[in-house]
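sry for the spam today, last one i promise. struct tokens for design, 171 residues
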């Protein structure tokens, strides 16, 4: 099954991010991420066998992570897949640290395709036609986080659907 480790936004922020996605779609086109799918990916694990997935779920369920607060104050775009996102003007050091420690831990599960660099971001649009984010309104949002989620991704015709398999204990 296809898995990733992520942070899920608190409800109020999820709603606010959904409004921003709506606004961005009006300017940039493309497909809007459904509100329930909005997340920050910390580690994309890819295809994982069922047995290993169960071990990963147990690991996440027992591992509390240090709490932090991510400041979202920038729009960005990844050109090739046409992604419009919100994130920080610079990568948040606490998230970069968490990303590193998760990848250290993942090695024990045989997951070793650690990426060279990490740009914490929340995807709002896919296949956007205009990647012009300068005209979008300035943002300054806080994302308090204290739990990690192990999420399964199902491929469906109109885009992926996600299911949370395990959450870490609240910090
Ligand atoms: P789809 O690929 O069907 O358009 P999706 O990208 O939302 O949908 P997945 O590909 O399963 O679904 O990805 C799950 C999460 O992992 C997303 O946040 C995605 O951006 C991220 N992700 C996917 N592939 C990689 C990768 N190779 N490296 C880093 N992150 C990835
Ligand atoms: Mg994908």
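last one done:
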């Amino acid at each position: 099954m296809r898995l990733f480790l992520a942070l899920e936004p608190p409800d109020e922020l999820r709603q606010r991010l959904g409004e921003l996605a709506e606004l961005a779609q009006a300017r940039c086109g493309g497909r809007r991420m459904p509100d329930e799918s909005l997340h920050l990916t910390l580690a994309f694990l890819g295809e994982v066998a069922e047995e290993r997935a169960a071990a990963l779920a147990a690991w996440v369920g027992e591992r509390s992570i240090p709490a932090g607060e991510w400041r979202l104050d920038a729009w960005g775009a990844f050109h090739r897949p046409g992604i419009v996102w919100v994130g920080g003007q610079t990568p948040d050091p606490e998230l970069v640290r968490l990303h590193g420690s998760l990848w250290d831990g993942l090695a024990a599960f045989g997951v070793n395709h650690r990426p060279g660099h990490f740009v914490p971001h929340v995807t709002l649009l896919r296949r956007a036609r205009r990647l012009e984010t300068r005209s979008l309104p300035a943002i300054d949002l806080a994302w308090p986080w204290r739990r990690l989620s192990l999420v399964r991704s199902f491929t469906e015709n109109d885009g992926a659907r996600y299911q949370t398999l395990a959450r870490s204990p609240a910090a």
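Residues 58 and 64 are 12 Å apart (CA to CA). ok im logging off now
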